[in-house]
């Protein structure tokens, strides 16, 4: 059973591709796969999108090997294979970019756009990023809502909002400065716990310890863990294990930041 049915070759791709043209097509497929991989797409989606480009580009087959740090793409035309390995750097999760690349691939496959338009779109797509204060406010409200679900009063929810909002602003700032993600999570957890601990020491709110617990929930690496399980279930064990390991290390860095803050402020326990 074919997971990705082939369509007739596109008129954009010349018949009997020469080697330079095949190299260009392979690089385009690799660039598409790398864009998806480095912005949080699961491995099955990365491989599927790259393979669907092949028939429209006039190649016999496209083989993709997605990995955590690189993507390897091989195209075959008339028995001649060309392989391109392109490094994949983590750019953070951004579903806007993933969806835009998917739309471009599907529109090109359906013949609604030509090769030049497709190349322009995938090379020009930029991830949508909200202002830092908007993200910090939204995350603060989400953590405050978690505190409320855990039974915190309104004042304690306000402490959770302030702690998580300030920590998220710090996290975005460190990410903009290209700090290591492990250090980023460590510092962010320390800031969130410290602000919430200050509320505990000053006696702000009836459930300040609940606010402390809720303020660090934004650091749970849910998306990487989901992708890790999905990759392992769908047969991409190496990539899945790597993503699981990274998520575990991020969780460990978060725990380290929390422990340091509770030691500095001498506020042990969340209950």
From TrEMBL:
Q: How does it sit in the membrane?
A: Multi-pass membrane protein
Q: Which GO terms describe its cellular component?
A: plasma membrane
Q: Where are the transmembrane segments?
A: 128-147, 182-204, 210-229, 241-268
Q: Which InterPro entries match?
A: ThrE-like_N, ThrE_Dicarb/AminoAcid_Exp
Biological processes annotated in GO: succinate transport
GO molecular function annotation: transmembrane transporter activity
Q: Name one Pfam family in it.
A: ThrE
* Lineage top rank: taxon: Bacteria
Compartments where located:
Cell membrane
**Residue limits of the Threonine/serine exporter-like N-terminal domain?**
27-264
List keywords of the entry alphabetically: Cell membrane, Membrane, Transmembrane, Transmembrane helix
Protein family (similarity comment): Belongs to the ThrE exporter (TC 2.A.79) family.
For this protein, the record's PANTHER family field holds:
SUCCINATE TRANSPORTER SUBUNIT YJJP-RELATED, UPF0442 PROTEIN YJJB-RELATED
Per its record, how is this protein called by name? Threonine/serine exporter-like N-terminal domain-containing protein
Species of the source: Rubrivivax gelatinosus (strain NBRC 100245 / IL144)
């Amino acid at each position: 059973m074919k997971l990705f049915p082939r369509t007739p070759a596109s008129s954009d791709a010349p018949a009997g591709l020469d080697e330079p043209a095949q190299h260009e097509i392979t690089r385009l497929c690799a660039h598409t796969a790398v864009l998806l991989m480095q912005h949080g797409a699961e491995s099955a989606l990365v491989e599927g999108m790259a393979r669907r480009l092949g028939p429209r580009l006039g190649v016999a087959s496209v083989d993709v090997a997605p990995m955590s740090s690189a993507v390897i793409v091989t195209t075959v035309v008339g028995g001649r294979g060309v392989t391109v390995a392109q490094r994949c750097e983590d750019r953070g999760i951004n579903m806007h970019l993933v969806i835009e690349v998917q739309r471009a691939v599907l529109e090109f496959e359906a013949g609604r756009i030509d090769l030049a338009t497709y190349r322009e779109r995938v090379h020009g797509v930029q991830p949508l990023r909200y202002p830092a204060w908007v993200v910090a406010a939204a995350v603060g409200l989400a953590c405050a809502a978690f505190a409320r679900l855990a039974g915190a009063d309104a004042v304690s929810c306000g402490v959770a909002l302030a702690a998580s909002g300030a920590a998220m602003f710090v996290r975005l700032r460190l990410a903009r400065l290209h700090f290591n993600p492990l250090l980023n999570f460590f510092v962010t957890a320390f800031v969130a716990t410290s602000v919430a601990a200050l509320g505990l020491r000053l006696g702000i709110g009836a459930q300040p310890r609940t606010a402390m617990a809720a303020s660090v929930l934004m650091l749970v690496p849910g998306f990487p863990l989901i992708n890790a399980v999905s990759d392992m279930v769908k047969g991409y064990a190496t990539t899945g294990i790597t993503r699981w390991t990274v998520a575990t290390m991020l969780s460990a860095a978060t725990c380290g930041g929390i422990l340091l803050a509770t030691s500095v402020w001498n506020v042990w326990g969340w209950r």
